[in-house]
Specification:
363 residues; alpha/beta; 5-stranded mixed β-sheet; 3-stranded antiparallel β-sheet; 42% helix; globular; signal; Bug_dom1; BUG
Amino acid sequence: MPRTTYNKIAAIATGLVLGASVMLPAAHADDYYAGQTIRMIIPFSPGGGTDTFGRLISQHLGRHIPGSPTIVAENVTGAGGLLGSNEFAERVDHDGLTLMTASGHLNLRAFLGLQGLRLDLDALEPVVAAPMGHVTAISTQAGIDDPADLLEAQGRLTKGITDPVGLLESLVALEMFELNYRAVPGYGGRGDTRIAFERGELMINTQSTPAYLNSVQPLVDEGVAMPLYAIGFIDGEGNPQRDPAVPDMITAPELYEQIHGEMPSGTIWEAFKVTVPLVQNTRGTVWVHGDIPDEAMAALREGVEAMVNDPEFQEASASILEGYEIMWGDDLGQIKASMDAASPEVLDYLRDMLNERFGTEFN
């Protein structure tokens, strides 16, 4: 069973969450999906990272599920993922014939209770997921040449804002440093903020690690930008772990410790430890309703295990996953373990920050 280093670390008792699913009896699993078609709802437009991940799974999973069902991916777009998510939540049968691929930020929106989103993650089970890291960089116009001097940065420290929930891991990191930055709203996506950063219109920018390596690292090489930190990952004991795609880059908590001589603490640190696993571990997550028939759940689990060990899938997924490895089986328990670890105080802090600073409304 292939595992990433940080998945091994994070696996602590999280297997308890999915243990019942993994141990489901296999009786009739061979027959349940025979001759069936599984619909894969992707609540985002074609071509993005979540869509690419969902289509990767839909192309390979079916032939490994007992009964060899056909899996058809369908983009149900609109309202930032709400239309497809709400359809999956409320208007499909709980028979295992409909799956949904969500992004980490959609998971976070559901977890926080974004207004209008009726997706209840507690009622779902993750089938398979993939991580994705993020890196924050700063323009050299800020006048510093070492990340440890971050609090001495000069000028207007502007950061472009798209959907604030979609940037929450980077915003929480900046709040953790108590950095006096100015949020500039109105950008359509991270790519737009990267272009503005390249033009010198923004001083701080966060991209997925692959996007950073492809599009921001050249700016670093030219001397017009400097990496500050990788958001990093959080292990099962709440400790920071390096991003395996940039293992030599310091993480945000490590940088905080360099600057202040101690690790972060308090509500903002607890918020970071909740937000980061939900976003970073789930670049893409395939969900199924938790109350589908036992034989359907058993067949899905069996299919995922066979898929991830299939050399053809491994080859096909290598470029799409961009250095990260599939999460499946017991490792998936950390997704819900992260949610279970969130106190009401942390949830109130995150909702209040998003509402007061950006006008985001919650149910």
